[in-house]
Write a structure and sequence with these properties.
single chain, alpha+beta, 6-stranded antiparallel sheet, 18 strands
Length: 290
Amino acid sequence: GRHYTLLQQGSFLLWKFSGLDVEVVEPEMQKKVPLDFQLFAHYSGQASFTKGLLLVDKSGGVATPHEAIELTSKDCRWRRNGVSLSTSRPNLLDLKDADGAVFGAFKVWKSEEDPGNVIGKDTVIERQHLQLLIRTRSNLRNLAHLAVTCKPGHFLSARLRMGRVEDARYVKGELGPRNSNVPSLLTASASQASLMELDTEFAISSSWIELGGSAESAEYLASVDSQGLALLQQCGPEEKEAAALMCKTKAGISSHAGFDTFLADCIFDVCAGGGEAAAEMAAQDFNTQM
């Protein structure tokens, strides 16, 4: 991703998938459903850290989402209609159109806790997952997988992976294929996810509730937003060296092929104001991807 000297906060269209139809074949129904999924990210605070994610299903050309599922850094839990979902084991939520035809599903679950996830005595870095499944004639296939690393009360980062490379042509938004440098990784700081300096193209004026989110999450996001434009904090040489040492210590591994990219992103987020929490989350995400 690119780095910026001026950041924005608010809600942005991170990922939109549309233009593909799925065929539903049932004993009493045969039809095609035009897919339309939209993933929004909310950036807050003077460093524009990612505080919320909202995935809505507007397939079939409807104005109001059939389904909406969200996660904020308040408690790092998936919520549907404001109600926390159980993710101790995979939870499958059917996606239906206006006629009741099942054309896909949201599958949510939480990674099993390991000792490396625990920071201090009580604070745990959560690893939450959401898999977007769409229907084929015989079963469900993976359209996209969203893996979220989140520290309650702080911020989150997320990684989006498409199930098939050829499906990328239907993607728009901040993670759309506008050039060869499109990131699949949304790090803690909004500056790493955006592809334009102000990225106003994907800024959303609608409220979190209007997009399909809950009143509880909207209240939390409003409470962590800051007034005015956010200026990016920067590290001096000594601070950057200290940030690098912290990131290396948290990761514990330096021989992996992607370590240099991890280190640069980790230093950036630490220097943007994320501090030790940003290093912990970046290291957790890096080690999980290996």
